[in-house]
Design goal:
single chain; 73 residues; alpha+beta; 14% strand; globular
Length: 73
């Protein structure tokens, strides 16, 4: 299996809710890429202080897509 170029940041804060926040934000980004792929649209992100639209990245949604296909079988 190919290693993803994305990794979930780890929070150094003591609050358990704050420790879980980076993983939740990453899951939300994965879902946004999957939905954009399914809808045939781009994903709106902030790059270098500017709001831009990018193509959905298969590395972001690939795992979710394969899980969705398995659930449908």
């Amino acid at each position: 299996m190919k290693k993803s170029k994305y990794k979930v940041p780890i929070s150094k804060l003591a609050d358990p809710d704050m420790q879980a926040a980076p993983a939740a934000l990453f899951r939300a980004a994965q879902r946004a890429h999957l939905i954009a792929h399914q809808a045939g649209t781009g994903v709106v992100v902030m790059r270098d202080g500017k709001v831009v639209e990018i193509e959905p990245d298969p590395e972001m949604y690939g795992e979710l897509l394969s899980n969705t296909i398995r659930e449908e079988l």
